[in-house]
């Protein structure tokens, strides 16, 4: 008989403790082994500093990745258990927690509730016979019914609310629905709909999920962590200060953390019982929220300066004490804090910032895909000239990451800097600009090498002078890419690369239709929010979506399975190179630069494989992982897929034990 994950992890006498399918066993075991290897916290890392030897090693590792072949893996990476052939793990069971009573409480617990999916024997032993309608439905039949209900709703926010109600009733069915319809539901459970949900979060909240740390809790974070009873493998944390392009939403930013983790489960196969959404409620400077009598967060101005960083520090130390090897993803921190926090902790904690590093990785993946569409090689990135609109945390991260890729492909650092023109609200950033504000350190190299145009030059003037091949937008300024700007890009390039990346849709620099009309459908287009393909004069311009969803599930999965203690630049570069490898030559020909979201499990699996390989090249993995890597891609694929959670019902039994 197969033992459970928890039994193997604790090496206790055989006793079934699993609450999720055993395909997660290897991930749970790997996290447990990493815990045993965890070291005590090192001293605080200096801000914006790197050890020279570490930087050199990282650059060499990135360069080594470029030798990997570029053949498509679209046909070789196939999830062993597809959406139409789920297995029932008959040799595994769900044992309810001893604190859960028999009877009606089973039906009120979304972890255990199956509705009409309980078998006759389960209804008897769990004390729910007669408490649910007599007819039995499989999870597949239930999913078909719920999907029809959801599709009938017209407003995206109503669909979001419907899905949240389902998750509050029956978690397994919720994740089955999302797993089976990920391409249609990703925009509902995350961007752009989650932005609307966050705006109304205090009014929409029905059931608290995750953890809330407020200014009143300072000094007690460490003990509060133990109120969360389950083991945690990944945490998404926000301070609500810069939610998408919507600004300061305070505690309402919890919707972002929850939505992101739903995508970790759906796309990366993470066990929903081992993910934790968190909001750091340091207050809000949003007057609408401060004056809202029903706002659920702390009705105070935001903490700033040393008080703010001490708050973050206490949270990080509490996590390291409670779950020393959990992955921490920072989400939607405002620019003045985001990069500073990332640089402070990235060398001592397994963490990354999705707005900075995830966005940068998916943009680089899109640029590599565009090189393929232009019948070139990813090394042709060194021939590109970039105009970046937006100099916040996302803009800085993207520019720095693209710069790193150009250096890895053969340019010197100074040559690569000269390929970038960065524009903010005050126009072109040049050597004349004083960059001494919070979060502006990464801009200095780009500004130092920009002395060929006047400080503050307009976007149109920059395009006419620089003649860029790639136009990027993370400004959150709707319509910034005007008809004149787009037409100029079309005059300069036969196939201009246009990337309006701002979220939500209401903040996009241009629409797919704008780009298609201005370039006669010739543009290679990618946006942050979803748009429909556009047909013009018999040519179809693909409306690619450069969604971070392509990156973070696979990156997180690979980081955890590799047992690396940090996420390095080489691991991020590997993730970016893996994504376009999941495209077919036919897709390149038609202008597609990102694979279909409905293959996100396979995409995440391949990203995880390449992340693990990159970590192994850098010497960051233990011997057991090196052994798997040495066996080749097929063995690694089996290893990664075997860890993924599949949302299926399994036989449920009641525990009479008093052991926790």
Descriptive labels:
660 residues; alpha/beta; 7-stranded mixed beta sheet; 5-stranded parallel beta sheet; 29 helices; 43% helix; 9% strand
Give the gist of this structure.
This protein has 660 residues and is α/β, with parallel strands linked by helices.
Overview of this structure, please?
- With 660 residues, this protein is an alpha/beta fold.
- The chain contains 29 helices and 16 strands.
- Helix 7 crosses helix 8, helix 7 packs across helix 10 and helix 21 packs parallel to helix 22.
- The chain starts with a helix and ends in a 7-residue tail after the last strand.
What fraction of the residues are assigned to beta strands by DSSP?
5-15%
Estimated helix fraction: 40-55%
The count of strands amounts to: 16
Number of H/I helices? 29
What integer value in Å does the Rg equal?
25 Å
Largest sheet: 7 strands, mixed
* Quaternary: single chain
Terminal Cα separation, in Å? 22 Å
SS-based structural class?
Answer: alpha/beta
Average pLDDT reading: 87
List the helices and strands and how they pair.
Layout: H1 5-10, H2 25-37, H3 52-65, E1 94-95, H4 104-108, H5 120-125, H6 139-152, H7 156-169, H8 171-180, H9 182-189, H10 193-199, H11 201-204, E2 211-214, H12 221-224, E3 234-238, H13 254-268, E4 275-281, H14 287-290, H15 305-322, E5 327-330, H16 335-345, E6 351-353, H17 354-373, E7 386-389, H18 393-408, H19 413-417, E8 420-424, E9 427-428, H20 444-448, H21 459-466, E10 470-473, H22 483-492, E11 497-500, H23 512-519, E12 524-527, E13 534-536, E14 539-541, E15 543-545, H24 552-562, H25 569-578, H26 585-589, H27 600-617, H28 623-630, H29 633-641, E16 652-653
Parallel strand pairs: 1-16, 2-4, 3-4, 3-5, 5-6, 7-8, 7-10, 10-11, 11-12, 12-15
Antiparallel strand pairs: 8-9, 13-14
Helix pairs in contact: 3-25, 6-8, 7-8, 7-10, 8-13, 10-13, 13-24, 17-18, 17-25, 21-22, 22-23, 24-27, 25-27, 27-29
């Amino acid at each position: 008989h197969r033992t459970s994950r928890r039994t193997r992890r604790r090496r206790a006498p055989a006793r079934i403790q699993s609450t999720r399918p055993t395909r997660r066993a290897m991930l749970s075991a790997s996290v447990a082994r990493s815990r045993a290897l965890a070291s005590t916290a090192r001293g605080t890392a200096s801000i914006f500093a790197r050890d020279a030897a570490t930087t050199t090693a990282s650059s060499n590792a990135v360069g080594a990745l470029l030798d990997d072949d570029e053949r498509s893996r679209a046909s070789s990476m196939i999830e062993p258990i597809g959406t139409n052939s789920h297995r029932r793990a008959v040799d595994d069971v769900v044992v309810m927690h001893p604190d859960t009573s028999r009877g009606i409480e089973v039906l009120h617990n979304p972890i255990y509730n199956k509705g009409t999916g309980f078998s006759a024997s389960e209804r008897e032993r769990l004390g729910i016979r007669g408490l649910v309608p007599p007819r039995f439905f499989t999870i597949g039949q239930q999913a078909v019914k719920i999907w029809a209900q959801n599709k009938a709703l017209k407003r995206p926010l109503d669909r979001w609310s419907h899905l949240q109600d389902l998750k509050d009733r029956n978690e397994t069915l919720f994740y089955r629905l999302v797993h089976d319809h990920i391409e249609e539901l990703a925009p509902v459970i995350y961007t752009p709909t989650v932005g609307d949900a966050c705006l109304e979060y205090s009014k929409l909240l029905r059931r608290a999920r995750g953890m809330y740390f407020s200014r009143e809790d300072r000094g007690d974070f460490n003990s509060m962590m133990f109120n969360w009873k389950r083991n945690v493998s990944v945490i998404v944390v926000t301070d609500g200060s810069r939610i998408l392009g919507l600004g300061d939403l305070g505690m309402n930013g919890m919707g972002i953390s929850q939505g992101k983790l739903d995508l970790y489960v759906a796309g990366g196969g993470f066990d929903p019982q081992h993910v934790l959404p968190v909001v750091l409620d340091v207050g809000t400077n949003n007057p609408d929220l401060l004056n809202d009598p029903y706002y659920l967060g702390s009705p105070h101005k935001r903490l700033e300066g040393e008080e703010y960083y001490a708050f973050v520090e206490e949270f990080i130390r509490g996590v390291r004490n409670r779950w020393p090897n959990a992955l921490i993803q920072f989400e939607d921190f405002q620019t003045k804090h985001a990069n500073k926090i990332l640089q402070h902790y990235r060398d001592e904690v397994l963490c990354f910032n999705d707005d900075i590093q995830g966005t940068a990785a998916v943009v680089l993946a899109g640029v590599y895909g565009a090189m393929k569409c232009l019948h070139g090689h990813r090394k042709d990135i060194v021939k590109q000239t970039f105009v970046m609109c937006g100099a916040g945390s996302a803009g800085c991260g993207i520019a720095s990451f693209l710069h790193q890729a150009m250096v890895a492909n053969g340019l010197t650092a100074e040559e690569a800097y000269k390929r970038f023109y960065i524009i903010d609200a005050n126009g072109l950033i040049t050597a004349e600009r004083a960059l001494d504000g919070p979060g502006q350190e990464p801009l200095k190299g780009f500004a130092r090498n920009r002395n060929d145009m006047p400080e503050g030059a307009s976007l149109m003037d920059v395009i006419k002078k620089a003649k860029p091949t790639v136009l990027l937008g993370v400004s959150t300024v709707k319509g910034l890419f005007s008809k004149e700007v787009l037409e100029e890009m079309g005059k300069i390039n036969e196939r201009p690369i246009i990337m309006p990346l701002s979220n939500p849709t209401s903040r996009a620099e241009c629409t797919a239709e704008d780009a298609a009309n201005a370039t006669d459908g010739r543009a290679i287009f990618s946006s942050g929010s979803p748009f429909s393909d556009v047909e013009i004069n018999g040519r179809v311009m693909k409306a690619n979506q450069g969604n971070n969803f392509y990156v973070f599930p696979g990156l997180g999965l690979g980081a955890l399975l590799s047992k690396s203690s940090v996420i390095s630049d080489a691991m991020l570069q590997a993730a970016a190179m893996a994504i376009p490898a999941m495209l077919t030559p036919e897709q390149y020909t038609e202008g597609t630069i990102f694979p279909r979201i409905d293959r996100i499990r396979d995409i995440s699996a391949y990203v995880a494989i390449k992340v693990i390989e990159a970590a192994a090249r850098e010497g960051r993995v233990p011997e057991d992982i090196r052994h798997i890597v040495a066996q080749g891609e097929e063995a690694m694929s089996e290893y990664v897929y075997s860890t993924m959670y599949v949302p299926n019902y399994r036989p449920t039994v009641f525990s009479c034990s008093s052991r926790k």
